[in-house]
Amino acid sequence: MDLHRLRNLRSPEELRARLDGERQRRTTLSFYRYVRLKDVETLRHTLYQEWEALGVLGRIYLSQEGINAQVSLPTANLKAFRANLNSREAFKEVPWKIAVEDDGKSFLKLIIKVKKKIVADGLADDAFDVTNVGEHLDAKTFNRKMEEGAVVIDMRNNYECLIGHFEGAYLPKADNFRGAIEEVVEAFKENKGAEVLMYCTGGIRCEKASAFLKHQGFTNVSQLHGGIIDYARQLKAEGLKSKYLGQNFVFDERLAERITDDVVSTCMQCGTKSDRITNCHEATCNMLLVQCEACATKYADCCSPSCSEIHQLPIEAQRAWRKGRSTRSTKTKAVNDPAGLRQRIREEEELLALNGTLHPELTTLIP
Ligand SMILES: [Zn+2]
Ligand SMILES: [Zn+2]
After folding, report:
1. pLDDT tens digit sequence for 254-270
2. Positions of CATH 3.40.250.10 in the chain
3. The pTM is what?
4. Which one of the ligands is nearest to 297 CA?
5. Domain spanning 3-114: which CATH class is it, in words?
6. Rounded to the nearest whole angstrom, what is the distance from the C-alpha of residue 259 to the centroid of ligand 2?
7. Which residues make beta-bridge pairs with 279?
8. pLDDT given at position 262
9. 71 alpha-carbon distance from chain centroid
10. What residues act catalytically?
11. Longest dimension (CA), the chain
């Protein structure tokens, strides 16, 4: 097997052009399964060959504990892909979730990675029984239990809960899974007998989270089967009323898919109601933020005057400025501290008014 060929060798521009030129319709879907896999490296190479031939794009994690996949493929090949999955005992009849709002352009290339775990959760799995999970609920039952007054817990990170969540859900402040689950244990430690409903994007994180809560002594733990993605599908299929408000944060170029028209968040820059989620367009920043249309215009799609000053330079000047700079933002994440972002914007605007620039070093870059 020529392993060199078993990965993407094209440039992003080439990939984008290829996808845009494609005539066939694509479907975006995701699936996961906790299952013992053997000889993961070889499996990875075989899957790459087989799935590339089916036109599959996306991101797949394989590990000894299972598979976690988010992919798009030509709609015409869905049947063949299902047959391919079913041809292996480990993936047989694995339930997949089809994205609701979808132009099929969510992924540019096929990436299959071998990982230690299929979800980086930071938990010591050997310390508890990961298969002792909570009861799986469908959308209808989840809704009913909410009406009966069960405690609802969002198991996603803070930036995912921002633009949409279940009505009245407990939203952890942590920006990682481990922090969130520890926060939940602490917040409900006096109430371990309460009926607890958990949910996350696709259901996979609740598998671990519910097992962890049970290990911690919680006695009545249930989880939304298939997560918000499948909840949205069931709403449509069965004509149920959504108790989830707003948008569902997703991990591809779309960033979000809308579940209901409710707007549950505010613009981090001006505070008006908005759930327009985006990244700062200045390449060295790229900070995730909720930004209303008006602020997007005002700050040229950037998080701050300082980023927008760079972003509006001629492309060569931007490149010169970026040279040697880290692309990892060191600024406080706006999600954790929107007030801090507004403070920084005010200070920068004052400085800008005073000096005419926030980057005096630019005078040496631009003749
Ligand atoms: Zn705004
Ligand atoms: Zn920025």
Report:
1. 889 999 999 999 999 99
2. 125-238
3. 0.74
4. 1
5. alpha beta
6. 28
7. 288
8. 97
9. 14
10. 200
11. 69
